[in-house]
Design brief:
By secondary structure, the protein is mainly α. About 75% of the residues lie in helices and about 0% in strands. It contains 15 helices and no strands. The longest helix has about 35 residues.
Amino acid sequence: MNRIIECFKEAVPASWKSTKWLLKLMIPISLAVTLMQHFGILTWIATWINPLFVHFGLPGESAVAFISGATAGTYAGIAAMMSIPLTMKQASILALMIALCHALPMECAVNKKTGSSFWNMGAIRIIMALICAFCLNIILPDMQGKYIYLGAEADSSFWEVMKIWGVSQIKMSLMVAFIIYSLMVVQRMLEAYRLLDPLSRLLSPLMKLFGLPRHASYMWLVGNVLGISYGSAVMVELEEKGLVTREEANDVNYHLIMNHSMLEDTIVFAATGISALLLITTRLCFALLLVWGRRIAKTAI
């Protein structure tokens, strides 16, 4: 019990630091999207983007959320999503696009450090996100209900928009703080009870199914529990210690760019109403498709 209490205590400063950093990112983006919508800039952007995004069943304005997620990260993409009126089907498609293609500058830099090409990783993730959106638009049925919308009505005055935005940011900030703290507690419990090692041994047989080296299970687990960005230090250390080769790390990266940070990303999107099952199964399918497709292509060559 003392160890559990200690995990809850230790999570406070780390979660506070992460929450502050994320809110410094999310709040300005949310404000920018809200102002762009109020002054008609999003409508102007939509006229140019809509010919492409219409094939994904998305309004042109949603390109702002996709770009925000691709450049700044998942939380930035969600902040933009909640500032645009979306149906649940549209939100689900956009969420999967962001889940497959987020924080590209930072995460591709980490991939490069562990043996992969920065530009290849980025290009693959963008292409796969667009393919995913196209397929989901065809496969997914129409979903009743609306996604969380924290913006104001179209005919609202500027000050009404600012008031609604301010209240929405308080709600969003509390939600982010709770999610981050919960994740930090879970992470510390895994470390305190030394669960990562036995979990990685248990998952070793799955590596064959995933088309990955059997002894790369720990690296895969770190990427899925902590994410590419959070787990980068651990992943680099594994390679430096010789526990995985550079080529094996590159192989694992091809899986992780489609399917990483499954704990955090799934919880965050699910908290806003997106299906956790849809997120997990779609990302896993795209990871399998990419890894096995690459292995088959290398064998053919």
